[in-house]
Amino acid sequence: MPTTDNATPASPAPAAPGATTGERPRPRGLRYEDFTIGDLTAIRNLLRGGSVIDWHRLSYADHAEVDRFLRLNEFDPENDEEMARLEDTRSDAVEYLSRAFAMAIPDEVAGDLPARDLFLVASSHGPHQKWACVVLKVMHIIHHINGRAGLLKMSVSDEIIFREIELKVMQVVEQLRAAGAPLTEWEWSRKPFDSQVTKLLAKRSTLAANIYDKLRFRLIVPTPDDLVPMIATLTRQLIPFNYVVPGESVNQLLDLQQVACIEGSVDGGHVGRL
What we know:
This protein is mostly helical and about 270 residues long. The protein is built from ten helices and three strands; from the N terminus they run E-H-H-H-H-H-H-H-E-H-E-H-H. It has a three-stranded antiparallel beta sheet with strand order 1-2-3, covered by helices on one side. It is globular and about 50 Å long.
């Protein structure tokens, strides 16, 4: 693979951005038999550049899977204040739906159940499944708006934000390597100023906010068979599927029909190989 522009080699210390190389770890990370329907749904959404707003059902089997998703979105399920913030977001979503569309949200979804349980209701086949999905979609939008508003109020520079992201990604990647995930090389870079100007000249939209790859990461696995397990691992530990930017993914690596075959195997109680 060609090296991305502005990428620099890694040093042993995690504070210096760049690339790391090494021998293929002996044990695997996430295996095909570990996959859930939720994993495969997240993979498909990432490869297609889909939007969770178009989804009609979730695929969580228990609270452990829900809590993993919440932590990925920087919510600590064991922190009362953060769970209270999740409850406030649910209340805002229900109020919006009642006010804007005169929707009569069932009491169980509107407030009787903990907001954390809505993910399980949205994954079920019960009478309130649809309502849980509707409320969660609006909660996602409100959480995103609140996050953007908070970012503007803090007046934090891109340099600080990029550095925090780099450190988080480095931490996760080093944990994967230590756990034996198949990873031969990884690197990261920041999009240079000239590249940003060139990209905007080539786009119909000339807003700098629409450049989504100002900070780039590349991970290289040893074989094609390692691609799906690595993507699944990343969607569990680093990339929230609900923040995939719709229409911005370009998949030239995997056949989605093959991913669908794996999903059928998982749903049937066993897992096949690509």
